[in-house]
Structure formats: C-alpha cells, structure tokens
Design goal:
Glutathione S-transferase Yfyf (Class Pi), Chain A, domain 2, 2 domains, five-stranded mixed beta sheet, 10 helices, 7 strands, binds glutathione
C-alpha cells in the first residue's frame, strides 16, 4: 500500500491507497487521462464494483480520492461537481467527458453504452437479462447481508446476517457450477457487482462472518484473482486491518451509546 500524500485543488490532504490514486486537480490536468474520472475511495464496496469494471475493461481513468463521510476528516471539502451531480452525495460517481453519474449499477450500465468494447455484457439479449437479474439479486441479497455483518452491533443480529450471507454465497456458488462464472461463459457485470465480497472476505470473517463459504464461491474467488481487473481492487493486509479496525471502533461507539442511553 502506498502512503503517497498529495493536496487536491480543494486543499484536502489525501492518503493514496495505491499508485494511480489521483486528485481532482490531476483529473483535469493529466493529458489523456481526463476523459474518465472515478470519484470514490477503496473502502467503499460500490466504488470497488466500478473500479474493477474500468480496470477489467482496460478503460483509462483517474481515481479522485473521495472518502465516504465516516472516513473523511472534518476539514475535507467536497468537490463542487460531486455536490452538483451525486444527488444523494454518495460515492461512486463517474465522469465521462462532461457527463456525470452516481450509483454503481447505473454507472456500470452507462459505461457499457459509452464504451461498448470490450464489454462485460453478453451479446445475446436473454443472456444479458440473466446478468442483470443476477446483479440485482446480489445487490438485494448478498450485499444486504454483508452490510448486516459489518454494520451490526448486536451479536445475535450479526450472527443472523452471517447465516444469510453464507446462504447468498452458496446460491452464487451454484450459479458458477456450469461455466465457472456467475452469469454466462465468462466474467460479466455480475462479477463486477460481486467483486467487493471477494475483496473484503477476510475482513468480514474478522467482523463476525462465521458461515462456511461454499467451495464453489471460494473457487470463483480464486478465478477472479486471475482477472486483469483484480490488482486494481485487491486489498493489502493493511487495508483489511483498516476496514476491520474502523468497524470495530464503530461497534464500540454504538455500544457505548446504547449503554449510556
Ligand atoms: N446504491 C449506491 C450506494 C452507494 C453508497 O452507499 N455509498 C456510500 C459509501 S460506501 C456513501 O457514499 N455514503 C454516503 C456518505 O458516506 O456520506 C451504489 O450502488 O452506488
């Protein structure tokens, strides 16, 4: 993990998580790299989806450091274009040329229309429909359960979310039985949507995910490590520690509030 620091045009001190972690100023100044800019931070799973897809598709982009509010320092100044174009003030936000869009799944779809090749969607309409159905399923089931694990403060609720996540990963593992991939004969946008789970699995275990990971899903994870987009999103052990530490602290604060109240 690189600890390179820089100051962006809003005066924010940035800790780059890895090389290539840029600033808003760089996004505007770097010749040839200003076409696509991703606003976000490595700790956000929704950002991981977009960053994986950009890297997997070989799209040149600049990553503008924009941490979620819980990770931002008190003096962090939000870029005005983020305030203008991310209606819920959420990362990820993507800029392509002069256009902006927030929300990971719509962004993944938008990238497909703006940059058709190489695609992470199959040619056939029915195959595309399956990819989309599974993206929505992962979002509604695996992601909801995953959030229940790391945002959980009550041990019983964490355990219940852990069971649900285990079941969701088992279902996703079953999808991979025929081809090795979640929806079709190769990696698709369904892999992009699921990728953050592989990235943070070790951290989830440390935060109370105790269910057995289905062998098929684990195998899918090993297959994903071989994809060209993987190095852009994989976490170092320091990043896993930071993720776990932040949520342990969050739990401590919540429990202290509950005890006090
Ligand atoms: N549905 C959105 C969810 C994005 C989201 O929840 N992002 C979080 C960070 S992981 C965020 O920006 N929250 C607002 C905040 O931190 O102020 C997506 O898929 O992109």
């Amino acid at each position: 993990m690189s600890d390179a620091r820089s100051t962006d045009r809003h005066g924010n001190r940035e800790a780059g998580a890895r090389t290539g972690f840029g600033s808003a100023a760089e996004a505007e100044e770097k010749p040839g790299a200003d076409e696509v800019a991703l606003y976000g931070h490595w700790i956000c799973p929704f950002v991981t989806r977009v960053q994986f897809a950009l890297s997997q598709r070989g799209i040149d982009y600049t990553l503008v450091n924009l941490p979620p509010s819980a990770v931002r320092g008190p003096d962090f100044v939000l870029p005005p274009e983020f305030i203008e174009h991310s209606p819920r003030l959420e990362v990820p936000m993507l800029r392509i040329g002069a256009e902006y869009l927030a929300d990971s799944i719509p962004i993944l779809e938008w990238m497909e229309t703006e940059r058709s090749e190489p695609s992470l969607l199959p040619d056939d309409e029915a195959d595309r429909a399956l990819v989309r159905e599974r993206m929505a399923w992962i979002d509604a089931n695996a992601f909801r359960a995953m959030g229940g694990v790391y945002y959980g403060t009550d041990p019983d609720r964490i355990a219940a979310a852990s069971v649900k996540l285990g079941e969701a990963l088992a279902e996703m593992g079953r999808w991979t039985q025929q081809t090795g991939w979640l929806a079709g004969s190769g990696p698709t946008l369904a892999e992009a949507v699921a990728m953050p789970i592989h990235v943070r699995l070790a951290g989830l275990v440390r935060l109370g995910f105790t269910a057995e990971v289905s062998p098929e899903f684990a195998e899918h994870g090993r297959r994903c490590v071989g994809l060209v987009g993987w190095p852009a999103v994989e976490w170092s052990s320091g990043q896993t520690d930071e993720f776990v530490g932040r949520f342990e602290k969050f739990r401590e604060i919540r429990r202290a509030e509950t005890d006090a109240g």
